[in-house]
Amino acid sequence: MSYLFTSEAVSEGHPDKVCDALSDAVVDLYLTRDAKARTAIETLATTNQVVIAGETSSAIPVSHEEIEDIVRQTVKNIGYDQDGFSWRDINIQSYLHKQSADIALGVDKTGAGDQGIMFGYACCEEGIDTNYMPLAIYLSNLILKKLSDARHSGKISGILPDAKSQVTIEYDDSGRPVGAAKIVVSTQHEATLSQNEVSEIVKQYIYASMPDGWKIDDKNILINPTGRFVIGGPDGDTGLTGRKIIVDTYGGYAPHGGGAFSGKDPTKVDRSAAYMLRYIAKNIVAAGLAKECVLQVSYAIGVTEPLSVYLDTRGSAKVDEVKLLKIIKEMFDLTPAGIIRQLDLQRPIYLPTAAYGHFGRTPDNAGHFTWEKTDKAEDLKKCF
After folding, report:
1. Strand ranges inside the chain, DSSP E
2. Local structure of residue 294 (DSSP, 8 states)
3. Which of 66, 77, 267, 338 is deepest in the core (most CB within 10 A)?
4. Is 310 in a helix, a strand, or coil?
């Protein structure tokens, strides 16, 4: 049976993403000072106000002035210098305090920092390179990233930081993607731009994001459906850290454990275990052992080993799943400390994850997105 599937994404200027970026910028600040620093940071942003709150632990203190500086620099880099929200004069309040000794006790014993469940996912979209991501979320992020890059480079003008996209993909009876049925993009813009001008700017980045050979009729593209989007960002809508967890992951195509990533250091398994499961799932699919792979793991606070590990290839496995699960447990260390070592996570690498997805990204020489490597694919192949 053919079907439609839809995912959405938001830009770095969306109010919730501003907060994710600020939380991760503070995480990176702490990890720059102390690789073993612990953070659980939440941010709220509204009209000319930013509130930072949460728990930290660090051998080297970080001052309020340093936090204020990194907040202003991050807001500036996103592009906000508006009457209702500007890096120059936002009021910044910090309510960070020491991590609970009860929580620290479990982490100090190399156990998980909390109980919880985490998921990882990877898939192959037939005939299309999506970096092992579902196509709808891949395209939703790609459109906004291209638009953002053009804004930052000065290639376009009049387009402001806050934006959202939504892509509906049509699949045929065999589950193969055959086209984009609907695309919605809403982007903040200067009042001097007409809606026709906004539409013409945005459409070129929609077209540029389509897979080779794909075309979409303009009647199936909706740009700024309300007709105007001038007031945006935290001035138009209050933002909070951790409110875009589906946008951050697989666009609803795979389960989610419920824990947000941004603001958390790598001892928090909400973040690090989700990264590890993506790493494992991606290597399994890259090795050709399955077309699709879902993994789940569960932890208890203070306990080192995971309580459970679950594998589901949704019927796409080309090898025995029982053996594959056994190999996963043998090849990959799923203890919190083992995950941190394998992925080299105790470093200030988190701000770039705050927008355009934590997954489906490209690892770089600076050590960002290590969980996107496929360096275990050959080892997995040799096991069968």
Report:
1. 3-10, 38-46, 49-57, 81-82, 85-86, 91-98, 116-123, 159-171, 177-189, 221-223, 239-240, 292-299, 308-312
2. E
3. 267
4. strand
The per-residue DSSP string of 99-144 comes to PPHHHHHHHHTT-BSS-EEEEEEEE-BTTB--SSS-HHHHHHHHHH
By the 8 A CB rule, do 358 and 247 touch?
A: no
What is the identity of the amino acid at 101?
A
DSSP-based three-state secondary structure for 27: helix
- Secondary structure element (H or E) that encloses residue 322, with its range: helix 321-331
DSSP string, 186-228: EEEE-TTS-HHHHHHHHHHHHHHHSPTT----GGGEEESTTS-
What's the DSSP call for residue 349? -
pTM of structure: 0.96
Q: Exposed/middle/buried for 91, CB within 10 Å: 0-12, 13-18, 19+?
A: exposed
Nearest Cα to Cα of residue 188 among 140, 240, 231: 231
Asked whether 278 and 359 are in contact (CB, 8 A), the reply is yes
Would you call 236 exposed, middle or buried from its count of C-beta atoms within 10 A (0-12, 13-18, 19+)?
middle
∠ CA 313-314-317, nearest 5°, is 45
Cα distances (angstroms) measured from residue 71 to each of 48, 124, 327: 12, 38, 44
Sheet strands side by side (includes 239-240): 91-98, 49-57, 38-46, 239-240
- At CA 267, angle to CA 66 and CA 343, rounded to 5? 100
Name the pairing type of β-strands 49-57 and 38-46.
Answer: antiparallel
At 107-150, the pLDDT tens digits run 655 678 788 999 999 999 988 999 999 999 999 999 999 999 99
Burial of 295-315, coded b for 16+ CB within 10 Å and e otherwise, reads bbbbbebbbbebeebebbbee
Rounded to a whole number, what is the distance in angstroms from the first to the last CA of the chain?
Answer: 33
Say what the pLDDT of residue 326 is. 97
What mean pLDDT comes out for the span 188-201?
A: 96
Instruction: Determine the distance from the C-alpha atom of residue 76 to the mean position of all C-alpha atoms in its chain, rounded to a whole number.
Output: 21
* Beta bridge partner(s), residue 49: 46, 91
Please give the pLDDT value at position 112: 82
CA nearest to 36, candidates 54, 17, 58, 21: 58
